[in-house]
Amino acid sequence: MGRRRKGTPVHGWVVLDKPEGVTSTQAVARVRKAYDAQKAGHAGTLDPLATGVLAIALGEATKTVPYVMEGRKNYRFTVRWGIATDTDDSQGEIIERSAARPAKTAIIARLPDFIGEISQVPPRFSAVKVEGARAYDLAREGADFVLQARRITIDDAALIEMSEPDHAVFEMECGKGSYVRAWVRDFARALGTLGHVVGLRRLRVGSFRVESAISLESLEALGHSPAALERILPISTALDDIPALAVTGSDSVRLRSGNPILIRAPQLARLTTVRDAYGGAREGASIQGLTVFLSTAKGEPVALAQVAEGELRPFRVFNFGSSTT
């Protein structure tokens, strides 16, 4: 018989407005404590310097974390020109200086070269793994290592404000694996100077936006009250981009046992409509391999499944006790 997990079986998402100076791990621990939750995790690390949206999954919502991490992210950040640091932000040691300051016209002219699919080497102080070790641990130890460049996507980047020569404010939308600090480092060098991040705020990750976020201080002040529970969003919030189907009670039992179910005619029609909406209406198009979110008629999550040979085959099952979902 397995050991019972400590805490309350609470499930869902909390959109936290992370304060500066707190690590993502510390923020998760404090939210988990606020709810006395059995399990918690986050969808995308924010540096201690950064503020803004930290999407925190509680309980069974942790099974949907990968889908949030695949979502687009929006940032607003401030660049300090003329100084490079070993961390590419204001928390690092200064390693190089430049007297050059880019003109606004030069910044705007060069921006298109840093939008789209580009090559980027992650910062040395990052969570990227090098032979099993985190790069930031190796960097702190003074180890000699090289990080490989990788392809990332910057959907958009714009200069928002430049009130004085030393600083500029930008906004960016980007995909998974993109580092704002590395982008600033490379962009500054392309402009003939140096630069690092002195302020960073995440405005959105996936479907979670800063407008609906709650501060850590406010959340902790709510204690174990109904108002605190109202801040928990449904698990399905993380799955907005995945087609959803309702299943019967008997089918939900089969799915939660890890067994596949046959696709019914109404479900097939729905999946065909989804395929067409995503541009799949072409000769030979198929719904095979499509990922589907399955729930009961009352909206309780059942499983994530894949379409295969006329069946819905569960690969991630949601199991709830007496809890908040």
Main attributes of the structure:
325 residues, alpha+beta, Pseudouridine synthase, Archaeosine Trna-guanine Transglycosylase, Chain: A, domain 4, 3 domains, 10-stranded mixed sheet, 5-stranded mixed sheet
H and E string: EHEEHEEEHEEEHEEHEEEHHEHEHEEE
CATH superfamily (homologous) name of the largest domain = Pseudouridine synthase
Strand-pairing-aware structural class: alpha+beta
Morphology call: globular
> Main β-sheet: number of strands, strand sense, barrel status?
10 strands, mixed
Q: What's the tally of helices? A: 9
Q: Work out the strand percent.
A: 25-35%
Instruction: Quickly count the domains.
Output: 3
Distance between the termini: 25 Å
**Percentage of residues assigned to helices:** 10-25%
Oligomer: single chain
Question: What would the average pLDDT be, to the nearest integer?
Answer: 90
CATH architecture of the largest domain: 2-Layer Sandwich
